[in-house]
Amino acid sequence: MRKMLTIISNVLRGSASRNKCDLHKLEEGPPLQAMLSREEGLQYYRTMQTMRRMELKADQLYKQKIIRGFCHLYDGQEACAVGIEAGINLSDHLITAYRAHAYTLTRGGTVREIMAELTGRRGGIAKGKGGSMHMYTKNFYGGNGIVGAQVPLGAGVALACKYLGKNELCVCLYGDGAANQGQIFETYNMASLWKLPCIFICENNKYGMGTSVERAAASTDYYKRGDFIPGLRVDGMDILCVREATKFAAEHCRSGKGPILMELQTYRYHGHSMSDPGVSYRTREEIQEVRSKSDPISMLKDRMLSNNMASVEELKEIDVEVRKEIEDAAQFATTDPEPPLDDLCNHIFYNNPPMEVRGTNPWTKLKSVS
């Protein structure tokens, strides 16, 4: 018989503080109980470990100067990405900011394609021309480099969902640093007026670019920022809390009630980007405390072991397989050739250009003068 675990997620107001879900303009929130099967637990564990190892490998390659340019890592926030994806469908749509490697993976990209994109190789998911911030898959509209700019784009995708009538929605992700952008409030207004099926999600990892949320925002209740839009504040380190809250939000959107806002309280272990050491505005002790008490992977692992849903050996086997996958991908990403110069003007359009694009004539042969 399949092993099934009932977890008390404590996702309603007034319950345990770590898993508490605060509500804004909602009479009720996600359910008190969440079901976790053995198969789901193992799948979540594998995906989160893959994300963690992939980001740590990216850190290593960046320090070796094999990855260049901007590189924003997601380690520490894995429960957000995996929990969100467990609460929606792959036919739904998702758009995020530049911390995008993990979502590229959950949306169907492979570790090999992601690593090769980071190193600018031909086998990358954007043919080696997008880099860390610009990766795309079906129904995933990428990481976006302009702070907050993905939010109005996501509302546009949600408008298309409503217009086409396919009962799909768009998950629109942004960070606490972007939450103060004016374009986000304009988007709230439009999405509410038109009742767009859009889940606005603020991944609040406590720090923007070099500063804490308390120093950057007069109000850190990001789940209330939609004002007239209902909101939830969720423990973003607990994958089951994120999953159940996302299911609740998705049902809200699909029932025609319009947009909903979620704040996921999470934490990033690295700095804002690889150029930020991440310890000038917070202490190493703080980071270590989060790692020891609230790590999303460790919490899922402990939960599964304590309920006899998996053995230590079984999870170690997954760890070994994940490490091998990452090493194989890194090997590919450092040996695959870079895209040829002739490719520079290609891939601007999804298919053949409907018209001539100024300065990008695909028949023009380009020459390197370096």
Automatic annotation (TrEMBL):
Main subcellular location of this protein, as a coarse class: mitochondrion
User: Which intervals hold domain Dehydrogenase E1 component?
Assistant: 46-340
| Cellular compartments per GO CC | mitochondrial matrix
UniProt GO MF annotations: metal ion binding; pyruvate dehydrogenase (acetyl-transferring) activity
Q: Which InterPro entries is this protein grouped with?
A: DH_E1, PDH_E1_Alpha_Subunit, Pyrv_DH_E1_asu_subgrp-y, THDP-binding
Which reactions does this protein catalyse? N(6)-[(R)-lipoyl]-L-lysyl-[protein] + pyruvate + H(+) = N(6)-[(R)-S(8)-acetyldihydrolipoyl]-L-lysyl-[protein] + CO2
Signal peptide range equals none
Q: Which domain of life is it from?
A: Eukaryota
Record key words, sorted: Carbohydrate metabolism, Glucose metabolism, Magnesium, Metal-binding, Mitochondrion, Oxidoreductase, Phosphoprotein, Pyruvate, Thiamine pyrophosphate, Transit peptide
Please list the cofactors this protein needs. Answer: Mg(2+); thiamine diphosphate
Matches recorded under SUPFAM superfamilies: Thiamin diphosphate-binding fold (THDP-binding)
* GO biological process: one example: glucose metabolic process
Record function comment: The pyruvate dehydrogenase complex catalyzes the overall conversion of pyruvate to acetyl-CoA and CO(2), and thereby links the glycolytic pathway to the tricarboxylic cycle.
Record's protein name: Pyruvate dehydrogenase E1 component subunit alpha
Q: Which organism is it from?
A: Sinocyclocheilus rhinocerous
Q: What is the lineage of its organism?
A: Eukaryota, Metazoa, Chordata, Craniata, Vertebrata
Q: Which gene encodes it?
A: pdha1a
